[in-house]
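Q: Hi! First time doing this. I have a protein sequence and I read that you can turn it into a structure. Is that right? Here it is:
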Amino acid sequence: MIEDEIRELLDKISAKMRRNYNQSLRDVNLHVGQDNLLCKLWRKDGLTQIQLCERLNCEPPTVSNMVKALEQKGLVYRQRNEEDGRVSRIYLTEEGRNLEGPVYERWRKQQEKLLAGIEHEERLLLRRIMKQMKENLF
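A: Yes, that's right. Below is the predicted 3D structure, encoded as structure tokens:
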């Protein structure tokens, strides 16, 4: 059945991309997922863990563990909110900000490898189809 084949292809592509990308992130001492958390902070520094959970579509314990690991690496720090001491905000350190370029370069190389040999018009169609697939699931 073609639907099974498409599902299997998507699964294989996803797994291989994740392995390749994880290997490339090791060069900057990161794991898959940590780069996405940093990306959210590059776009808007000082988010709360709840905001990070919403933006990453992750459970609170997952985000908490990622923040803790990134803190230990010196890439982020937590600071209590002055208006509400129960709330902590997550901020990038200088070292965390400096990873933006290297991480984006890895994303770009991963995408170039994935899309090699696919024409611009085909890429547009692929993007439209994938957006529809995402909408179907969410």
